UniProtKB/TrEMBL annotation:
Pfam family, one: DAO
Domain FAD dependent oxidoreductase, first and last residues per copy: 5-78
The protein, known as: Bifunctional tRNA (Mnm(5)s(2)U34)-methyltransferase/FAD-dependent cmnm(5)s(2)U34 oxidoreductase
Key words of the record: Cytoplasm, FAD, Flavoprotein, Methyltransferase, Multifunctional enzyme, Oxidoreductase, S-adenosyl-L-methionine, Transferase, tRNA processing
Listed GO CC annotations: cytoplasm
Matching InterPro entries: FAD-dep_OxRdtase, FAD/NAD-bd_sf
MF GO annotations: oxidoreductase activity; tRNA (5-methylaminomethyl-2-thiouridylate)(34)-methyltransferase activity
Keyword match Isomerase: no
GO BP terms: methylation; tRNA wobble uridine modification
Organism from which the protein derives: Pseudomonas syringae pv. actinidiae ICMP 19096
Organism superkingdom: Bacteria
Length: 110
């Protein structure tokens, strides 16, 4: 008797939102925004330390057929300095640095 089976994987994020946008240098990001661990309302006046030219479009899960093309448009808008095809609040909710930022705020800057 021959056994048959199938396995499939979907890439998703802990908050079930896609991960879309430019990536920051993690170590530099933690140093630049460490003050948010003490006061999350603080707005640092230093620009984010981006990894030049590195963008991610992942974590779409079961909705990837719908969200991936729209997120690709979002990345294209960032690259070309064009208006975003989504409200800024949606773009920020999907930004890859959201996890590092939450970690800083919840971890007290550690």
């Amino acid at each position: 008797e021959q056994l048959q089976g199938r396995a499939a994987f979907r890439c998703t994020s802990p908050d079930y939102l896609p991960i879309v946008g430019p990536l920051a240098d993690r170590e530099a990001f933690v140093q630049v925004y460490a003050a948010l661990g003490k006061d999350a309302r603080q707005v640092p006046d230093i620009t984010c330390p981006w990894l030049d030219g590195l963008y991610v479009n992942s974590g779409h899960g079961s909705r990837g057929l719908i969200t991936a093309p729209l997120c690709a448009e979002l990345i294209a808008a960032w690259l070309d300095n064009e208006p975003l095809p989504l409200p800024r609040s949606v773009a920020e909710a999907c930004h890859p640095n959201r996890f590092a930022l939450r970690g800083l705020i919840r971890g007290g800057g550690k």
